[in-house]
Amino acid sequence: MPFLDHLEELRWRLLKSLISILLGAIITFYFIDTIIEFLIRPSRNLSTPMELQVLKVQGMFMIKWGIALIGGFITAIPVLTYQLWKFIAPGLYLNERQYVAPLIFFTYLSFLVGLSFAYIVIIPFSLEFFTSIGMDMIDNNFSINYYFSFITWLMIGSGLIFELPVLVFILSLIGLLTPAFMGHYRRHALVIILVLSAFITPPDPISLVLMSIPLMLLYEISIGVSWLVNRKKSE
Questions:
Q1: Hey, where are the domains in the chain?
Q2: Residues 153 and 226: beta-carbon distance below 8 Å
Q3: 127: CB partners within 8 A, 6+ apart
Q4: Do the beta carbons of residue 202 and residue 130 sit within 8 Å?
Q5: Can you list the alpha helix ranges (DSSP code H) found in the chain?
Q6: How far is CA 228 from the centre of its chain?
Q7: Partner of 48 for a Cys bridge, out of 35, 52, 113, 131, CB 3.0 to 4.6 A?
Q8: pLDDT value, residue 94
Q9: What Cα–Cα distance (Å) separates residue 164 from each residue in 27, 107, 172?
Q10: What is the dihedral of CA 147, 162, 121, 77, to 10 degrees?
């Protein structure tokens, strides 16, 4: 395909992806109050109480539309994955194109698992840590804008990190990764994992460990994924 045709196809793939995100955002906005109540729930079960406040006139408006757009992105992940796959599929062999359905499924599943892990494990520990270091004479009154920025950062970051096996699958499929390469650089990967965990989680050892352990397991799983892909290609 000529270069300009590639650009034209890319433009349509991006347009379809954008439409899917907007449709997902509209659907999310329809349930926005329920979603906000769900996201606030971790702040209600802390040993040190915290109160959320709207400090700007347009605060709730920005929050609702911000969450709607994030929800639109999350609901559109299968479509985004499909559009990406269709764009790169012409450069793959016929037997490699059969992975599109499992790829879409596991991409979405991995992201949801990452979101759930952040919501169930990381966010409660993080909120507990930050609220516990306060003082008796100072109330824990937090801006709701900063609260949602904090938890969405943790959830989206965790969801993206849990995509590691899927990323390894794609890179192994196109020949950029091998299990031998990943095994050789395991120690370097562990250092990177610790740095990422420290960057995502609050500065306490418990949260660091809670994030590091699943990341290490994901890396080992990714080595297995790379081994399976390379074995299938060699058959």
A1: 1-162, 163-235
A2: no
A3: 42, 43, 46, 50
A4: yes
A5: 3-30, 32-40, 59-75, 77-88, 100-117, 123-132, 144-161, 164-173, 179-184, 186-200, 205-234
A6: 24
A7: 131
A8: 59
A9: 28, 10, 12
A10: 50
Kindly report, residue by residue over 161-185, the tens digit of the pLDDT. Answer: 888 888 888 788 777 777 788 887 7
Query: Global pTM?
Result: 0.77
Contact 71, 25 (CB under 8 A): yes
First to last CA, the chain: 29
Residue ranges for the chain with pLDDT beneath 70: 1-6, 88-100, 134-135, 200-207, 233-235
Residue type for 31, please?
F
> Coil, strand or helix: which one is 51?
strand
Contact 163, 107 (CB under 8 A): yes
Q: Scan for tokens 């329920």, then name that residue.
A: 34
CB atoms within 10 A of CB 175: 10
Say if residue 33 is exposed, middle or buried (CB neighbours under 10 Å; 0-12, 13-18, 19+): exposed
Q: Give CA–CA dist 91/88, Å, rounded.
A: 6
